[in-house]
Every structure is written in structure tokens, then in C-alpha cells.
Amino acid sequence: MDRGLKAFLAVAQEGSITAAASKINLTQSSVTKRIATLESEIGVSLFYRDRRGMSLTEAGQLFLLRAERIEQEYQHGMEELAIIRDAGISRLSVGAGPVFHMNWIASLFDELIHQFPNLKLELRTDDHSSMGRWLKEGDIDIYLGMIPDKDIDNSIYSQQLIKVEHGIVVREDNPFAQDKFINPILLDDYRWVSFTIDPVTEKRIEQYTTPTGTEDSLIDIRTTSLASGIQLVKTGHFVMSAPLQLDSIFKKAGLIIRPVEQRMDLRDAGLHVRKSMLGSQVVQHVITYFQKIMVTQN
């Protein structure tokens, strides 16, 4: 990638010449020279400079959008060439939402290791709201779960696999456990746990239970740890929102999950991968794996 662009991106991200120089392993004078050369070529100032550091001018903010896209295309191009050169990849980083990592990731990884013995695998189960950006920036190679449409562009191949619906998890001896549906209004004696950071589900449940006009959140505890959520519900003091597709996990823990009365919205979840990775045999194996899974599910 162009050296001036690389320096520009580093300074824009770090906010100072010193931090940018450390990030890209150059001297401060080299970074300063590259920025000055780039500004001279473009004919406008890209940064405001003061004692606190450097911030983007209006022109710099516009240029940043293009520079980030150039960097992304460069990375994707190098990725495609590496796949051709090496006839595959040696490491795969997978991000996965709860339904996927609790139900299928162990089986998938076992199959991948048997098929590609030298492959190294990494799993990330963080907040799904960051996954679209991580996927485009190359921090992960595949994401299995829900990504908002606004975070997907034409550099990403997507395939819908399932529809996810949230329900409410309670203990087996909960008075409402035998009901076909649970009305959240009836759970005002319990504290709420939200499994995964999911504003859409939280807002929907709060429509049932929170007085109009209040800014208080219904959720007392947010966690990305299913084990912690299960232990909290087991105390008998908490109920939890979670995907209905985790029913078998909750049964093993002695808990029950039921749909919400009036039902929650169905939301698309699937496989998302950078198009530059589609030439990899490993990625194609992952796609085929889930296609087979979905055939048996339907």
C-alpha cells in the first residue's frame, strides 16, 4: 500500500505523530515527511496540529473514508493472492453468535482439524455489533450470526441460514414454566439478565414491562457468558432473555425457555465471509458444512 496512505491512516487512528510512528515502526520524522508529501500532492491540509496532537480537517475526514476503503481493498487483494500462492490458509479466525457457537462450532472445528490437520483455529464470541467491522478489517475471517445490513457491503458474501427468535428462560419450578408462552408483565418479581448485548431484544421486552416515558432499563445484568446467565436463573431470583434455539442447552441445565406472548421478531442469522476468502478450501468447507446442517434441520 502507498506509504503516504499508510502514514495518514496511522496518524488519523492514533491522533499523534509519536503514536503513529510507533504503530507502523517508523521514525517520527519519516511519518511527518510522508504526511507533508501527501498534503502537498493533494493540495489541502489533512490535519489540524496543536499541542494535544493531530485531528482531521474536513478534507481529512473525507479523505479518510477513501483511504480506509483503499486499505481494505489492498488487504483483500493480498488475501486472495496468498490463497493462490499457498493453496489455502494456515489460520482461520471465526466469530460466532450464541446459537452457532453453542450448537455447532465444536463439531465444525473437529471436522476442520480432521480435514486440515495443520490448520489453526480461533473463536471469538464477543458482542455481535462489532463483528461487521472486524470482518471487513480482517480481524476475523468468518462470522456466524446476525450482522445489521448497514454493516455489510459488497466486499462481504452472506448466506442466511436460520431465523432467530428470543424467548424467556426460567427455572423448571417457576409458576410460568408450564405455560406455552410467557407474558413478561407477569415477571415483575424477578430481576432480568440479558444474554448477549442485544438492544433490539431488550427494547422489545421493555415495551411489555417498562412504563411509557421512563428511561430506566429493565435489564439488571448483561452478560456474554451463557454459563453465568444459567447460574443466575438457577438461583430463582432471575429470568433471562435468550434465543429459543438454545432450548437443548437450557434443558440440560434444568431450565425452561418459552416464547414471549405475542412473539418476538424473527431475525435473520447466517454465514458472513469476505469475498476475498472464498477461494480458500477451508472457507468452502465451512460453507458446505452449514449447508448440510441446514438441510437436516429443515
Descriptive report:
This protein has 298 residues and is α/β, with parallel strands linked by helices. The protein has 3 domains: 3-75, Arc Repressor Mutant, subunit A, CATH 1.10.10.10; 88-163 and 268-297, D-Maltodextrin-Binding Protein, domain 2 (3-Layer(aba) Sandwich), CATH 3.40.190.10; 166-259, Periplasmic binding protein-like II (D-Maltodextrin-Binding Protein, domain 2), CATH 3.40.190. It is built from 11 helices and 12 strands. The chain has helices at 3-14, 17-23, 28-42, 58-86, 98-103, 105-115, 131-137, 199-209, 226-234, 247-252, 281-297, and strands at residues 47-50, 53-56, 91-96, 120-124, 142-145, 156-164, 166-171, 191-195, 219-223, 238-243, 255-259, 267-274. The strands form 3 sheets. Strands 4-3-5-12-6 form a 5-stranded mixed β-sheet, with helices on both faces. β1 and β2 form a beta hairpin. α1 packs across α4 (58-86). The two termini are 46 Å apart.
Question: Could you give a short description of this structure?
Answer:
The chain has 298 residues and is of the alpha/beta class. The protein is built from eleven helices and twelve strands. Helix 1 crosses helix 2 and helix 2 crosses helix 3.
Highlighted features:
single chain; 298 residues; alpha/beta; Arc Repressor Mutant, subunit A; D-Maltodextrin-Binding Protein, domain 2; 3 domains; 5-stranded mixed sheet; 12 strands; 44% helix; globular
